[in-house]
Amino acid sequence: MHACPDILETRYRNGECCLNQQNTNSLLRQSAIKSCWCGRRTQAMKNTNNGEKQKNKMKSFFFDYIYYRVTQAYFKWDGRNSITAVLAVSMLQVLIIGNICIFIARLIWHRHETVPYAKLIAYIGLTIFFVFVIINFFKYKNKYHQLKKYWKDEPQDKRKLKGVLVVLSLVIPWMLLIIMGVKK
Questions:
Q1: Is the model's pTM score more than 0.85?
Q2: pLDDT tens-place values along the chain, 184 residues long
Q3: Alpha-carbon dihedral sign for residues 109, 111, 115, 118
Q4: Which segments of the chain does DSSP mark as H helices, in order?
Q5: How far is residue 97's CA from residue 110's CA, in Å, rounded to a whole number?
Q6: CA distances from 63 to 4, 38, 59, 144 (A)
């Protein structure tokens, strides 16, 4: 039996390094594991790291999943670097930003005050769209198979539900834009 530096107590049991946690600070635990003499991790630490990985993957879930599903739908025509999916994700991102900006502008100004700037706003929106297309093209270049591997074992019922959510996420921003455009 030996002690890792002031943080954890290490016991050698059944060929594993078992760590009894005395401090919940994850940075301190990680440094103690690195300095642990046998270098093995307990199941609790593996689960902690898996949870952190899941959180990181969930942050980019929304646009990655939309890219994956649209690429999957158009795979025969576009291949693995689906420009259709890049355009769909970029369009969605610009529409979300545009809807927020239009909503805020409608709270501040009346429609007749913004009409003279309509062309300028359209050019700015188009420029932002092309910037997003370039960014997303390089972000998703050769990522289809990696995303496919991640979501390949998705249950059929979840897959159908998420498919409906993908379609709704592509349609709802357009509907909001139309509603805000028609509303006086």
A1: no
A2: 444 444 444 444 444 444 444 444 444 444 444 444 444 444 444 444 554 455 445 445 788 888 988 888 888 887 777 889 999 999 999 999 999 998 998 899 888 888 899 899 999 999 999 999 999 999 998 888 888 888 888 888 988 998 898 899 989 999 998 888 887 6
A3: positive
A4: 26-35, 43-59, 61-73, 75-78, 83-108, 111-114, 118-140, 144-151, 156-182
A5: 20
A6: 42, 41, 9, 13
